[in-house]
Amino acid sequence: MEVVLLIAAVVILICIFANRVSGRFGIPVLLAFIAVGMFFGSDGVVKIPFDDYSLAETGCSVALIFIMFYGGFGTNWNKAKPVAVKSMLLSSLGVVCTAVLTGLFCHFVLNMDMLLGMLVGACLGSTDAATVFSILRSKRLNLKYNTASLLEVESGSNDPFAYMMTMIILSIAQGQSSSPLDVAYMLFAQLVYGAFFGAVIAVSAGLVFKKFKNAIAGLEAVFMVAVALLAYAAPAAVGGNGYLSAYIVGIYLGNRPISGKRTLVHFFDGVTGLLQMLVFFMLGLLAFPSKLPEVLLPGILIALFMTFVARPISVFGILAPFRCKLNQMLLVSWAGLRGVASIVFAIMASAAFDFQHYDLFHTVFLAVMFSLLLQGSLIPLFAKKLKMIDDTNNVLTTFNDYSEELPVQFIRLSVSEGDRWDGRQIKDIDLPPETLIALVIRENSRIVPKGHTRLKAGDVAVLCAPACADTVGINLTEIAVTSESVYLGLRLSELPPDNSHLVILIKRGSHVVIPRGNTTFREGDVLVVNSAEKSP
Q1: Secondary structure (3-state) at 363
Q2: Is 285 helix (H, G, I), strand (E, B) or coil?
Q3: What are the pLDDT digits (tens) for 129-154?
Q4: Cα(117)–Cα(121) distance, rounded to whole angstroms?
Q5: Where are the domains positioned within the chain?
Q6: Closest listed residue to residue 36, CA positions, set 273, 371, 280
Q7: Which position among 183, 260, 386, 461 has the lowest Cβ density within 10 Å, counted as fewest Cβ atoms?
Q8: Which CATH architecture does the domain made up of 407-466 adopt?
Q9: What would the pLDDT profile of 469-507 be if each residue is shown by its tens digit?
Q10: Are 311 and 374 in contact (CB under 8 A)?
């Protein structure tokens, strides 16, 4: 047990280091994680034996639920709405077109069986959201014509359609769907049940957040995990597309004013980051480098065909009627990165069916590696050469967690009756330097303030100010006020002048009190203080 935990800790630390190194050299982080897995695998240096496709399928499928859910949760719908139709066409019709063209190429050029060729195309049909998001964020790559949002929505929503095609072709190969009626019903169940359950669960979860926020206070992250799992499992139990459902629930909740959203963003950032590391590592662990030469030629030819033929035909065929710019269509074509979902679908297929000893997994694996290395590394360069960089906007605004990326802090202040802010217009209030009133909460309404907005008693003003990056000298500790405490009964102004503590706030039961000079300390209070640190 101790050895397993030690290896897990070492792997995670190496993946974190690989993340930093890959970002510095412009290599997609997925490649770095998989390389670590191959290093530890049976053909690698450490030689950990692992070839259990069923276990890998289970682990990767669970991880994909949260990756899909958070892909929707992080998408800013207001930014995505103008390109929603184009994005959804690319993620549905585009996936089908790319997969069919690739399948025909595999059959007529590489002499694969038609079903096997179509299955290869289905597995490779979707683009990788994790890598696209990572490149856009890390390179601050804002693109003209709202292309960043177009790519985010397409890559975040096309996995369900590739999964649907994979399952339908597998069902035909296994003889479970022998008639066009069976195939039509599978298609209906995947789309309709997936969308229906997604919509119902999304609205229901939104109502719970609104009506019962006190009941789940402090448990928002746990509740959201349960919602994501339910969103997948409920439609999957009746033959629906669980990944489509999870994405719909994520995009709905991510664009709702739910409580604890800041905490949820941090939580899912950490969870999905860890899951991506472990999934990519597992995929690398499952791969055998010694088997790659056998599929080297077909894997590279498939990747080249998809990059320069299948993907461009699909993109131009869908976007040209919308009169999109040529440079935009070229960049969208190039940004069709294959990724982890393609390999996971190949694992599912390999675990479910024997393809007469054809190595489907390593063929798809190699095609994905080549795609990431060729396309992923060159996206920033292509965007620049195609003059698609927009320096006037910030790409982070296309994500729902944009406020988390900004170096600002928000402060909540209540306006009391008779307070010096009561009844005054914001333009007449003397605010501290570099401070702004960003929001006024009045009863159940939220007001975006202007200079003439007049504050009233009972209002809550939300102030924003630059965050302090240098916290050296801040040493927060807590002091409990007991019946024998020297603080009991004292006012803040009565503390000795040479006192080495600054009382920042008081925890009083379930309330937080920001102290003033006349604030009296009571028994049971917990004082949060900044203690002076002695110089070394």
Answers
A1: helix
A2: helix
A3: 777 777 777 666 778 888 888 888 88
A4: 6
A5: 2-61+82-173+265-398, 407-466, 476-531
A6: 280
A7: 183
A8: 2-Layer Sandwich (3.30)
A9: 555 556 677 788 888 888 888 888 888 765 567 788 888
A10: no
